[in-house]
Amino acid sequence: MDDAQLLELSVRLAGEAALAIRAVRATGFSVAQKTDATPVTQADTQAEAIIVQGLRQAAPEIPVIAEEEVAAGRMTQPGATYWLVDPLDGTREFAAGRAEFAVNIGLIRGGAPVLGAVASPALHQIHYGRVGHGAFVLANGVRRRIHARHAPDEGLAVMASRHYADDPALAALLAGLRVASVTNIGSALKFLRLAEGAADFYPRLGRTMEWDTAAPQAVLEAAGGRVATHDGQPLRYGKPGFENPDFFCHGLAKV
Predict the structure, then answer these.
(1) Domain boundaries, the chain
(2) The pairing of beta strand 134-139 with beta strand 125-130
(3) Prediction pTM value
């Protein structure tokens, strides 16, 4: 399969996983705790089963690294090219009845995200893109191309994590910038707001895993944005333990 076909595959599976997640929410679910004290529900496991089975059947030569498999002790070795899957990014938001959760399917090649699909089940949207080939959102059967924007003169529209809203490090960082607004939401949706030109800056000063960021980073970079670490280098993949450092997402203008 070429990259265009792999992107189509990721979009299809993200949509199927989103359907399963909505069905679980409609019928009710319980919340359990994993060994790292993070929550997990039937929606996480059902969505992951759909995605990993679909990826392995369609492209068996590409390894799949998925969050719940890793949590269960199944460690797939990544290759030069591999998938990173978070079947339900924002489980806390899902369990709380909010709309801020996502399905992330991203493809890594040579340590960089090259394509990804991010479904927002509660919003009935799928954002997707290939780096160097553009980004799109599919909503209500209509596909629209999206672009990151240059920051407006009045200041940055900042996206920030709901669960780090009171972080003094974030306040200190933003104090040195021209900020017009700060919006706190959960999951990969923060990347998407930058990708579609609705926001300008998303600083992440807390722990994330590579499966949290691979797909939305691909979408943002396909839309013209940028994801960088403290030293200004692109956020890369294949790190020990799949853990990310702090990172900063930008629209078309560097902060």
Answers:
(1) 3-145, 156-250
(2) antiparallel
(3) 0.95
